[in-house]
């Protein structure tokens, strides 16, 4: 097979896998191959034979079918089958037994998470029940448990009491799809554990022991966070419980690659090994290099990005041993096809995608950038060209996935790369020494104290700069295709290479014009799907109002990602209506990340004016000099196109006039309290939309308010209430069932789980 044929077929295979994002996409690739077989030879007479294009179409179709065949599905005895559709079983305490498959990791909620291979299922809340209640099951579970007094390790057999649950897809626009994530891992259920019992004290040997020995040696004298940082730069952040605040800052400034064991670490390892063995023969260099790569892969866990780096490093060693000129692009394509043939589902792994795009950028763009930077010393030119090339080729995908741009990424990489190199090399040396003699490993790691803290300081400084991460909003697929099309032209076309600035302006226009158009015309109300506090985001031509924050986890994992993907960089008006202190701690996270122009809240007690805000939130508001505009009864306040009027505290009642709609926010109280509210409220009116965070609505309340639409922000609704709303011909939107609810002038009300076929309400 000629090199051109291999490239065409390899690209056809990858295109076929990507086509599975669309219905019947594989057949589209097949049709494309047929069209190419007819049209291309007429215009490219020296190109491949028409038969190759036809075969490429067949390869693309087979790739799509192959991926569909490899998608995991639960077996008849999978543990997920024991979760009833009604959800009743998921609320019942059960006991499961199985073997731990992964080292436990600490989650943001301060719980330990690991994967468990299940063997037995017991519906009774006890491990001593009669054997007749036990059932043999199969499958893998995503398990979280409270931190354990005794360490738990892979290979141990445990019994865990808790509740089973089915993972849900993303309940908010462009949110994290937990269900899809677990499915890619071959898992179809989660387990919220309350009590864990070790059934087997010991644990078999595994690479986790080696990783643990290295981490302990490096943390002993370096402490936290320097010790985990050094370990993460050697083993990858997935193997180390690096503090989340450090991890978040590295991601914010565009240095997340430093914490992901991949190409940079592989290059350093090979460079050191080849330098140390330069006096040896080629075979010895090949042997030492291969051993180093395999060891690195085993320690890092053979994630997709690690595999890519190891395979490419091994290909480079082969080229060195055979004295042949390496063809990096051909190697990269071959490695991609090989890995995707082994596991085609990796095509949708974001780490896999970013790793290959960054490597492609280094191969095709660094030489051109180095030529344009030849007026600088070579070392400085390389420090600039390498991160710039990687950033250019990964930025479109980052915008498509996250909607943010790390403004100081290039400068941060230039400043941090020398420190990263020193820490990585020193980390490997101290790690190897720690395997042999932990005390020596700790002593060598201690020498990295100042470089590690300097790197943390640099990252912290960049993350605190104004506009360190700007939210543009996620781009559409057509924009992603055009951006990579522009990059391809700038790479392959000499005409575009001479006019690279024109390609840059075109790429900027592809992103900037739709962003400007959206921000200048958008009018959208979003009620986010949350577990506790009702949360609303109002977007009106650049003005953003946020009602409630939830707790810190809600703000960090739900509100901030939504705001970033919507291209929101500031909150013009923040309104807190939740009377519970814990449900207001999310404001602390939001105030640290986004500027807030004004803040309003409802006091717990109107007579004393006691605030429901935690002290830390009040201090942060004062520190940022944010004007406080209190909500007072019978006094309307306007912000943007939204008018807010506070009615009463118990239950929390707020009138919102948004564009042409009257909304009434009503919190949950007892039925008797709601009836009292109906009879005593002086300013009773009939809202078009009732936004409600309770469980049941009395008939008298529904009759008095007569809303046309009810939006329920709650995890449970009484069935009688649902029947009552249906009987009164009132449209019900329930975030726990429908996901986020959005209202726009054009589409009116839409359910997140039914965006393709929005339900049009009676409101104009």
Automatic annotation (TrEMBL):
Membrane topology: Multi-pass membrane protein
Pfam families: Competence, DUF4131
Ranges for domain ComEC/Rec2-related protein: 233-492
Name recorded for this polypeptide: DNA internalization-related competence protein ComEC/Rec2
This protein's UniProt keywords: Cell membrane, Membrane, Transmembrane, Transmembrane helix
Residue ranges of the TM segments: 12-40, 52-69, 221-241, 253-276, 329-348, 354-373, 380-399, 405-425, 432-450, 470-491, 500-516
InterPro entries the record matches: ComEC_N, Competence_DNA_uptake, DUF4131, RibonucZ/Hydroxyglut_hydro
Secretion signal span: none
Compartment(s) of residence: Cell membrane
Domain (DUF4131) ranges: 22-194
GO cellular component: plasma membrane
NCBIfam families named among the record's database cross-references: ComEC_N-term
């Amino acid at each position: 097979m000629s090199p051109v044929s291999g490239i065409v077929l390899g690209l056809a295979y990858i295109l076929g896998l990507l086509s599975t994002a669309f219905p019947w996409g594989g057949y589209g690739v097949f049709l494309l191959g047929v069209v190419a077989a007819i049209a291309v030879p007429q215009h490219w007479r020296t190109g491949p034979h028409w038969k190759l294009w036809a075969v490429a179409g067949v390869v693309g179709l087979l790739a799509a079918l192959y991926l569909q065949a490899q998608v995991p599905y639960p077996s008849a005895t999978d543990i997920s089958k024991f979760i009833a559709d009604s959800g009743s079983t998921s609320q019942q305490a059960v006991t499961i037994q199985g073997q731990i498959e992964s080292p436990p990791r600490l989650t943001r909620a301060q719980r330990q998470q690991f994967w468990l291979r299940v063997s037995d299922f017991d519906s009774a809340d006890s491990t001593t029940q009669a054997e007749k209640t036990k059932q043999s099951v199969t499958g893998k579970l995503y398990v979280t448990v409270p931190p354990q007094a005794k360490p738990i390790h892979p290979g141990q057999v445990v019994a865990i009491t808790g509740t089973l649950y089915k993972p849900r897809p993303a309940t908010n626009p462009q949110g994290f799809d937990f269900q899809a994530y677990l499915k890619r891992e071959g898992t179809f259920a989660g387990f919220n554990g309350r009590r864990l019992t070790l059934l087997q004290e010991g644990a078999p040997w595994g690479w986790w022991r080696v990783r643990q020995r290295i981490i302990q040696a490096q943390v002993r004298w370096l402490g936290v966070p320097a010790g985990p940082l050094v370990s993460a730069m050697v083993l990858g952040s997935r193997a180390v419980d690096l503090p989340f605040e450090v991890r978040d800052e590295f991601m914010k400034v565009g240095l997340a690659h430093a914490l992901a064991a991949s190409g940079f670490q592989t290059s350093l390892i090979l460079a050191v090994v080849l330098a140390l063995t330069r006096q040896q023969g080629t075979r010895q260099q090949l042997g030492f290099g291969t051993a180093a790569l395999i060891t690195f892969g085993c320690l890092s866990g053979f994630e997709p990005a690690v595999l890519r780096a190891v395979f490419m490093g091994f290909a480079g060693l082969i080229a060195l041993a055979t004295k042949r000129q390496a063809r990096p692009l051909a190697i990269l394509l071959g490695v991609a096809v090989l890995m995707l043939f082994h596991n085609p589902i990796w095509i949708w792994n974001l780490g896999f995608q970013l790793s290959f795009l960054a490597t492609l950028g280094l191969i095709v763009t660094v030489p051109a950038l180095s030529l344009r930077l030849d007026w600088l010393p070579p070392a400085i030119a390389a420090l600039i060209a390498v991160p710039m090339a990687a950033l250019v080729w990964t930025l479109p995908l980052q915008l498509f996935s996250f909607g943010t741009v790390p403004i100081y990424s290039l400068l941060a990489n230039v400043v941090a790369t020398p420190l990263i190199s020193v820490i990585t090399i020193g980390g490997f040396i101290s790690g190897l020494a720690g395997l042999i003699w932990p005390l020596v490993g700790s002593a060598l790691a201690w020498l990295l104290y100042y470089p590690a803290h300097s790197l943390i300081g640099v990252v912290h400084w960049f993350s605190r700069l104004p506009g360190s991460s700007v939210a543009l909003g996620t781009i559409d697929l057509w924009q992603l295709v055009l951006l990579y099309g522009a990059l391809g032209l700038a790479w392959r076309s000499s005409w575009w290479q001479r006019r690279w600035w024109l390609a840059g302006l075109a790429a900027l226009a592809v992103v900037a014009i739709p962003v400007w158009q959206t921000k200048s015309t958008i009018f959208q109300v979003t009620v986010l799907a949350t577990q506790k506090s009702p949360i609303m985001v109002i977007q009106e031509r650049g003005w953003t109002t946020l009602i409630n924050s939830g707790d810190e986890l809600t703000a960090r994992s739900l509100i901030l990602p939504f705001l970033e993907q919507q291209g929101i960089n500031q909150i013009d008006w923040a309104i807190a209506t939740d009377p519970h202190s814990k449900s207001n701690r999310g404001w602390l996270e939001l105030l640290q990340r986004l500027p807030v122009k004004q803040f309003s809240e409802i006091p717990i007690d109107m007579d004393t004016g006691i605030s429901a805000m935690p002290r830390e939130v009040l201090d942060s508001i004062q520190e940022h000099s944010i004007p406080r505009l209190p909500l007072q009864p019978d006094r309307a306040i306007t912000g943007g196109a939204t008018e807010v009027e506070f009615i009463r505290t118990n239950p929390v009642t707020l009138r919102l006039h948004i564009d042409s709609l009257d909304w009434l926010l009503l919190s949950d109280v007892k039925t008797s309290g709601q009836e009292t509210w109906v009879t005593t409220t002086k300013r009773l009116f009939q809202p078009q939309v009732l936004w409600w965070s309770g469980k049941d609505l009395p008939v008298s309340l529904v009759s008095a308010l007569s809303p046309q639409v009810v939006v329920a922000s709650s995890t449970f609704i009484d069935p009688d209430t649902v029947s009552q709303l249906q009987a009164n011909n009132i449209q019900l939107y329930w975030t726990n069932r429908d996901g986020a609810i959005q209202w726009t002038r054009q589409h009116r009300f839409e359910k997140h789980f039914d965006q393709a076929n929005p339900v049009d309400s009676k409101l104009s």
